[in-house]
Amino acid sequence: MIQVLIFVSVALLVIIGIYLLKKATVFLPLMHNGEPDENKQFLHQFGVFYLILAAIGVLVGIFNLTFFSLFYIFSLLVISAVFTVMFAKKIL
């Protein structure tokens, strides 16, 4: 069951990562704080983070070890929370 959750999260991470890399201009009008180049770099950085997490998730899903699976899910939640907080600061 955890393996299915990991592969679903990998698919979502790939979609979100590619969207942040290719369509960063969609989010730029929402960001009031900072320069446009800085905001674009911010989105690009987290797009790369999400793609790296997706690659790690494929490896974790294939090997299917409980400790690494739970650690991967924990790290995914932490990175997502950091992105959410930093993005909220740029919006408000």
TrEMBL record:
UniProt entry keywords in alphabetical sequence: Membrane, Transmembrane, Transmembrane helix
Keyword Transmembrane helix: yes
Highest taxon in the source lineage: Bacteria
Transmembrane domains' residue ranges: 6-21, 42-63, 69-88
UniProt name for this protein: DUF3784 domain-containing protein
